[in-house]
Amino acid sequence: MKSKPKNQKGKKKREVRLARRKTNREKIQPFDTAINKLNLEIQSLDQTLPLIETVLTSIITKDSTEINSFATKFQKGPVKIDDATFDILHELIRETAIHLMSKATVREMYLVALITKFDIFLADLLRDIYEIHPEVLVGSEKKISYPDVLKYSSLTDVKENIISQEVDEFLRGSITDRFKFLEKISNVKIIEKIDMWPQLIEISERRNVIIHNNGIASKQYLEVCKANDVDISSIDLGRSLTIRPEYFAKACETFYEAGIITEQLIRRKILPKDKDKADISLRQLSYESLKGEKYNITIQILNLGKKLNDYSSEETKCMILINGAAAYKFHGDKAQCTQLIDDEDWSAKDDMYKLAICVLKDEFDKALKLMESIPSEKISEEEYKTWPLFNELRKHPHFQDTYKKKFGIDFEEKETIPKKLEALRTQIQSLQ
After folding, report:
1. What is the average per-residue pLDDT within 408-430?
2. DSSP assignment of 186-204, as one string?
3. What is the domain partition of the chain in residue ranges?
4. Which of 42, 124, 283, 331 would bridge with 34, disulfide CB 3.0–4.6 Å?
5. What are 361-402's pLDDT values in tens digits?
6. Is 215 strand, coil or helix?
């Protein structure tokens, strides 16, 4: 048997590599990586700060207890203590001061980290734009000398170098500068679509004050906030700007909402033919925020959808509306939930949407009848288990019987657990 020439073998290997790269690109859509990474990073900050706060509070409480035990001895006046006891008390006071300061420092560090992650997210979006439309680099003023060109093995490497320079310069400006540049390069209005823009500016300026002015409100902080319609009526020049846990939680929510809006506006403009993929991403973000009880984010996604009015399918519009209505309901605003679903005509829509409306209106008997007739291809057994929309329906006394009649298995079927464990194992491996 004759062996293939080496050049043919090399050509075949290159074709395999190119095919593999193409497949990988198709699996991960442009912009998806950026928003998914931002989601995970913000969640990691939002969830770990309370844990650190709990540990520090426990230590400070222990410190206070020990100090109070000493204090009771001095209530009746000066008391003689030996040198060893004095040293212990002195060290205890010093450590308590450190622990109290640590609380404020950790909060500040987390706020700085949050905005850093968001800046990187914006830079990732910019890189995606350059990768999809490299022709926009034609207007770049970045120069590269002939000797430097010779150092690169391909024009692709030269392009990467120019993109890196562009991104570095992009990150040097203010957050407003970055958004305006993204608006210019993608030819889409972003700032006017971000309802939480004043909050975004205030948080960013507070971060600058923490880094450059020891957390003290500066003239620049006040001027920038005022220019962006931030309510600073309670903040005077020279005031210490502290970071409380509820402030940080709201900051996480604000930056994530702004991230979703920015990513969706840009990707729909840059990739108009991939509107369906943008819809899939938005639906997933809507579902995840509802499941994570981040109801304000689910509602913001609903509001964004109304502004866009640009869905590729009726399914996406309905699913995001239903999740938004559920978010209002779970957040305690049943009136707004009812208003949302009553404003839409559901009469000609699929039964799976009518089932959702019955659940939102607490018409559970009707919902169970519809559940029997809806094909499992439209609402799967897993969705009945995990979709937050069905939280109350699952508590109905006849739900489990209806579920078993429909799917032929008990609702708490344990064979699904290994599948979930396998999915978790895969996720853990991807993180490693």
Report:
1. 64
2. HT---GGG-TTHHHHHHHH
3. 32-68+86-257, 345-432
4. 124
5. 999 999 999 999 999 999 999 999 999 999 999 999 999 999
6. coil
